[in-house]
Design a protein that fits this description.
Layout lengths: L2 H11 L2 H13 L4 E2 H8 L3 H13 L3 E6 L2 E6 L1 H12 L11 H6 L1
Antiparallel strand pairs: 1-3, 2-3
């Protein structure tokens, strides 16, 4: 993952409503949720949900699939794993990591 893509995804998740939408989809698992079910769970207006979903889809964090007349939303787990990996990839490369016990003793 490159820095620009990570920044766009983190920016999308920087909104409380979008983060709530995303976490709800992550919890739903690979089956995802229909848009109507997602709206019911979150209690937000359809237009607001649509706006936030479009942002998450544009950054690759969420996918949508039409099944007849229903739109199913899913968290894009490979994208999530890539973003998390990007964040922790170089942990402690320039310095030794300390454990919580070592930090508490300091």
């Amino acid at each position: 993952m490159n820095l620009e893509q990570a920044a766009k995804q983190l920016e999308a998740l920087g909104n409380a409503t979008r983060l709530q939408v995303y976490r709800t989809l992550v919890r739903a698992g690979k089956a995802g949720l229909p848009v109507g079910g997602l709206q019911e769970k979150l209690g937000i207006p359809a237009s607001t949900l649509s706006h936030h979903l479009q942002r998450l889809i544009a950054t690759g964090l969420v996918t949508q699939e039409r099944q007849a007349t229903t739109l199913i939303c899913r968290a894009n787990y490979p994208a999530m794993e890539s973003l998390v990996g990007f964040l922790v990839d170089e942990c402690c490369v320039d310095a030794a990591c300390t454990t919580n016990e070592e930090e508490a003793a300091a």
